[in-house]
Amino acid sequence: MNTQFICNADTALAQTTKGTVRGYVYNNISIFKGIPYAKARRFHAPEPMDAWEGVLETTSYGYVCPLLDMGKPNGELLVPHRYWIMNENCQNLNVWTPACDGKKRPVLVWLHGGGYEAGSAIEQLAYEGENMCRLGDVVVVSINHRLNILGYFDLSDFGEEYANSGNAGGDDIIAALQWVHDNVSGFGGDPENVTVFGQSGGGAKVTTLLQTPAADGLYAKGINMSGVIGPVLADSKGSGRDLAEAVMAELSISDVRELETIPYDAFAAAYKKVKPELARAGKYVGCTPHPNAFYRGTPDENGFREETAGIALLVGTVYGEFCTFASSPYNKHTMTREQGAAMVQRVLGEKAAEELLPLYESAYPERNPVDLLCLDFIFRMPTQSYVRQRSALNDCTYSYLFNQDMMIDNGRAPWHCADIPFVFHNTELVPVTQKEGVTDRLEKQIFDSVIAFARTGDPNNSSIPHWPASTQDTEQTMIFGEKTHLHANHDAELLPLYAKYMAPIFAKQMSESSDDIQH
């Protein structure tokens, strides 16, 4: 490939409803960064941008939402990060397109991870859309939106103007999707073939969109990667009055409207000070979506909206998720299978090992039995329920599991986020993904499945075995790894029993961990 860069007055121009934007061309891909899609007052719904005169240069990433806490450098070999300038005027998006030529390519809109509290559209190196755009002949969009107390802080008790302040971040996402619907044809994309995809909190946002009527018609398909996390990202229920009044008391203000203009750092500091006591009392503390007239609430408690039954979904998890961020205290590569089984017995007890190991051998015959000790159940079990519930509505729900070891500690079971570089075809940016003779093939299998799904709503392609949709009774899981294969209900019997024995141990490990969870 010949490296090419062009940035001049008449290259990479696109017309939007508010005016012309100019990006740049790199390796034959037109790239636009920091395009404003809306504006908003704090706690209020986003509003359309004002039109501009002339040409707006969009060659630099826009602001990202301010964070409540700055993480410490940690785990960068596992999940390489970058950070950017923060400002709550963060309603902007980035576009990668093969050409602004009027063609109707599939559009993929990325929703970043970090729960509803942190992260950004550019936080991970693997979020770059260039390779996906070029190799898939698709338009890729990534968006920033309000997070934490800026995006999810219920003030509805204080007046109609704040009726949906508890979901302002979700309203930003919908405004971005509306921008895509209205403008993406000018970037060579098809507004009627939009796939929303995201990982962790981004996957959870896909579910939130399904449960929000205002998003209907703005997307056709969804990919939910490690985004079904049960209570970890539960809805924020109840009234936000006590929280608002506690924050105002801490700031020595009496009018809720003063919260709209108080400097963010002071607002965040007051929130963090009052939150623990309210949380202990089981009261609303915000930072996740708020069920109300605008948002139905999570499907596990409220059911999926039948209006979304025709939306095809690709849903899955990673083998280790949170369990494998930390290195293991044992080296499985020097262990025989018998020694691995003995380790399981030592950790979980003889009875547990006797019950679990035959089920594990059936589910994961390629793994040493000791890997049972780093098997995720926090994500996988609610994902199983999610797939069953969704499959009762339709025949277009597809399940997957990412099961490829990463090349650290002589091969560690994959962790939360480990699949992202494969989805974006960006393994070249994440060295720990590299395994000779495996990475290129696996990357092609995963990427081709994602692009096929974005085109048609069906992930089947020539690089993988046949992949049927799941049913209410049969989860047809494509297990992506060194030997990618389909396995129906492979862990259905194993996981509930495993969780019974492992949950107390895992809770203790998490409470003792001093490291931040990467997103």
Shape: globular
Q: How many separate helices? A: 13
Low-confidence stretches: none
Strand runs, count: 15
Task: Give the topology.
Layout: E1 5-6, E2 13-16, E3 19-22, E4 24-26, E5 29-36, E6 55-57, E7 92-97, E8 105-111, H1 130-136, E9 139-143, H2 148-151, H3 168-183, E10 189-199, H4 201-210, E11 221-225, H5 241-251, H6 264-280, H7 299-302, E12 312-318, H8 337-348, H9 350-363, H10 380-391, E13 397-402, H11 420-423, H12 439-456, E14 476-480, E15 485-488, H13 494-512
Parallel strand pairs: 3-6, 8-9, 8-10, 10-11, 11-12, 12-13, 13-14
Antiparallel strand pairs: 1-4, 2-3, 4-5, 5-7, 7-9, 14-15
Helix pairs in contact: 5-6, 8-9, 9-13
Would you kindly provide a written description of the structure presented here, covering whatever features stand out?
- The protein is α/β, with parallel strands linked by helices and 519 residues long.
- The chain has 13 helices and 15 strands.
- The chain has helices at residues 130-136, 148-151, 168-183, 201-210, 241-251, 264-280, 299-302, 337-348, 350-363, 380-391, 420-423, 439-456, 494-512, and strands at 5-6, 13-16, 19-22, 24-26, 29-36, 55-57, 92-97, 105-111, 139-143, 189-199, 221-225, 312-318, 397-402, 476-480, 485-488.
- The strands form two sheets. The protein has a twelve-stranded mixed β-sheet with strand order 1-4-5-7-9-8-10-11-12-13-14-15, sandwiched between helices.
- Strand 10 (189-199), helix 4 and strand 11 (221-225) form a beta-alpha-beta unit.
- The longest helix is centred in the C-terminal third of the chain and has 19 residues, at 494-512.
- The mean pLDDT is 95.
